[in-house]
Amino acid sequence: MGIYLPIAEMSVNMVVLLAMGAAVGFLSGMFGVGGGFLITPLLIFYNIPPAIAVATGANQVVASSISGALAHFKKGTIDFKLGTVLLAGGVVGSTVGVWVFSLLRSVGQLDLFVSLLYVALLGTVGGMMLVESVRALRRAAGGNVASLRKPGQHNWIHRLPLKMRFRASKLFVSVIPVIGLGVIIGFLASIMGVGGGFIMVPALIYLLKVPTNVVIGTSLYQIVFTAAYTTVVHSTTNQTVDVVLAFLLMVGGVAGAQYGARAGAKLRGEQLRALLALLVLAVALRLAFDLFVRPASLYSLSSLSGV
Amino acid sequence: MTMHSLRLTTLTGILLSLLIALSPVRAQVPETANPESIQIGLSTDRVSITADFSGADLTIFGALDNSDPLIARHGRYDVIVVLEGPPRPVVVRKKTRFLGMWINTQSVTFVNVPVSYSVATTRALQDITHPDNYRQMALGANNITVVPAVRDDDPATIREFAVALRDRKKASDLFSERIGGVHFLSQSLFRATLHLAPNVPVGTHRARAFLFKNGVFIKESSAQLAILKSGFEQRIFRAAQEHSFLYGLGAVALAFVTGWIGRLVFRRD
């Protein structure tokens, strides 16, 4: 069934997009991730112009993260102060990101930059997760209990100035790494169309030593508003947010996420992380393949504005 | 107005023009002045792109005035109909290998390239007239003039990129050719069927009909066609262009509501 996308100015198959949204929603529900890192590459593989895929991906991330954020809000597992400082950084990063995005688009290097960022980030994060989860699986087989947080340990981050107290996280830490993390997440959100949870969650746990019970909620709270801000800035600067496309993905995604969460509850944490790592690596490999293999045509056309 | 009644009005128009052509005033024109001429009328003067648009066929009716029955009977009249999209600048980029990766390294910008170029003919192009004539008339996807924005580039490079431009346009279905797409319904009436690609650009398109007699170009006639997004699609597009900030807020609000409703529907906690 065809549907015309008013911003992308092309006709696409509605069923394919709903299924894409549902599949990504299923995986994101299962693994507890936003799914932006899957949606944007899938849209690009489906010939949606990368500029539109990224901006629309950011919009979809809002919908897929809000439901989780609401659940954590109800449970009281959001550190609002920490999240708001992260968000302040996110706004700065996103603004810079959208500016870089427009610049790259005008010189014709946006697709390359998006692909490179995806390959580098997904490759690194996926590789690290795979190593970590395989170790955890081995340890679990040996009967030891894995612990993520080692409260006694301090690292270089705790020696930085401008410390601030975050009561909900029981943290007394410098705002510099917190804002810096927010900036990076905002930048990635605007250039890759991702929520950034796959970087935010490990960074909060391993670098800032945030207690695991508030990590997901705080991360989701920050992601919802950073992605919302990114959507508005992309829409204002580049006019590349396609609501029809975003809505199809959201509907499929919201429904798929519920079933994914049920499937995820049946698997153990380490197994989930190993599977997610394999998935992330697969996306990175697929994008790398496109970069390194001679394309069918060496030439491409774009309008002056870059779409 | 519906398509059907539009088609009727157009046909009436053609008949009227035929009547005028047959009136005594025209009959006084001397035989030597190549009295044949061509008229076209579109079945509709606007095409709306609706939500379920996935490409379409556009029918153009036309008539020859003062056609010579003998030549017509031998099929020596040929018609080429072209539907040309609005001209826009295009950047053609070329990838080369750099550190093992295929990266856009070279680009040439062309100004005023028709976004789409759809051709229908009575016969294969090479059977109608000599290729030189097409080149002179800038007729056909391979002959339309594409002007580089910067003229001092190497001519060989510009030629290479111009070829790539046409090739990519053909690959995306925006440049197309339909041999036998023009049918003579009678000695003087013909019908052309042109292809509108699913990604046809919106804007004012120009339909042009070229009449050839024994391989010699006789006359041209043209008409305009507006391709628009239909109400809903157009409103979204305009909102995104003109009220982009509010549009962005709306997109975010839609995401909030969708996520929230999803939570209500599938409540688990």
TrEMBL record, chain A:
Localization per record: Cell membrane; Membrane
Q: What InterPro entries does the database record attribute to this sequence?
A: TM_pro_TauE-like, TSUP/Inactive_protease-like
Q: Does the keyword Transcription regulation apply?
A: no
Task: Cite a GO CC annotation.
Answer: plasma membrane
Q: Which keywords fit this entry according to its UniProt record?
A: Cell membrane, Membrane, Transmembrane, Transmembrane helix
As for membrane topology, the entry says: Multi-pass membrane protein
Is Membrane among the key words of this record?
Answer: yes
Superkingdom, natural source: Bacteria
| Record-annotated membrane-spanning stretches | 12-45, 51-73, 85-104, 110-131, 171-201, 243-261, 273-293
Entry's PANTHER family? MEMBRANE TRANSPORTER PROTEIN MJ0441-RELATED, MEMBRANE TRANSPORTER PROTEIN YTNM-RELATED
Q: Name the family.
A: Belongs to the 4-toluene sulfonate uptake permease (TSUP) (TC 2.A.102) family.
Q: What is this protein called?
A: Probable membrane transporter protein
Q: From which organism does this entry originate? A: Neoaquamicrobium microcysteis
Q: What taxonomic ancestry is recorded? A: Bacteria, Pseudomonadati, Pseudomonadota, Alphaproteobacteria, Hyphomicrobiales
